[in-house]
Amino acid sequence: MGTNSGKLFAFTLLALQLPAANAEPWQFDVTPYFFAAAMDATADVGPVKTDVDMSASDVLEDTQNGFMAMMSARKDRWVVGLDASYFKLGDGQSESVTGPFGRTTVEGEVELTDRQWVYQPMLGYQVLDQGMQAHVYGGARYTRLRANLNVAIATSIAAFPGGERSAKAEKDWTDFVVGGHLSLPLAERWSIESMADVGKGDDSDISYHFLVAAKWQFNPAVSASAGYRLLHQEYEDDTFAWDVTCSGLIMGVGFSF
């Protein structure tokens, strides 16, 4: 865990230092947001494998706490950004479970408790400013995950006896990502904002992220946005595998200063 945290810290320091030579003032944006995501996941924790398919309303009902925000600092053509999120999902119901006896389908008998932190620092550079603005960026997506599977099965299948068992895992990994951001003005106060990136790490097969949103600028200091977001991650080592897609409505309120 320390190695991944060190990589993240080193990248953040580099991102903050590169634009410092320019004398123009910094411009800052902070956007707390809400991600109403459906979750489609497969989790392998030790000998137990389970599939989780939850709608956005299910995730919202089972989310115990969380925080999400995007922050950026701009100077001339350079931009330094951070997308940070944390949530705790309690008792997410699974559709099926695989163990040492094969597969059997169960109804709400497998519960996934999931804590996840995702931090993505980014360093970008503006390559287009002719009505539409475009930035390219590189960054690091750091993920820390605590997964706990509680299996409680009551079945008459002799090969899969009932009972309870738990399997736990705590992992962290870093994907190095490249991507782009587009901003397209539609009217005086309206614009379309979009982001997309793809990444890979040592034990991460692939991760990718996509966001498109309509933005309304109330005044120079306050804005609101709403749109669609998708985040996909695939990670696997000898004792743990995590393949998840989170997608759905995203809404935020931005503050500029």
Word description of this protein:
The protein has helices at 2-17, 56-62; strands spanning 27-45, 48-54, 63-75, 78-93, 96-99, 102-105, 110-130, 132-153, 163-185, 190-200, 204-219, 222-236, 240-256. The protein has one domain (2-19, 28-91, 110-145, 170-256): Lipocalin (Beta Barrel), CATH 2.40.128.100. Strands 1-3-4-7-8-9-10-11-12-13 form a ten-stranded antiparallel barrel. It has two helices and 13 strands; from the N terminus they run αββαβββββββββββ. It starts with a helix and ends with a strand. Residues 104-108 and 154-160 have low confidence and may be disordered. Helices cover 9% and strands 73% of the residues. It is mainly beta and 257 residues long.
CATH topology: Lipocalin
Low-confidence stretches: 104-108, 154-160
The biggest beta sheet is recorded as: 10 strands, antiparallel, barrel
**Helix proportion:** under 10%
Summed up, the helix count is 2
Helical/strand content category? mainly beta
Distance between the amino and carboxyl termini: 35 Å
User: Which sequence of strands runs across the widest sheet?
Assistant: 1-3-4-7-8-9-10-11-12-13
Order of helices and strands: HEEHEEEEEEEEEEE
What is the fourth-level CATH superfamily?
Answer: OPCA outer membrane adhesin/invasin
**Estimated radius of gyration:** 21 Å
Hey, roughly how much beta strand do the residues contain? over 45%
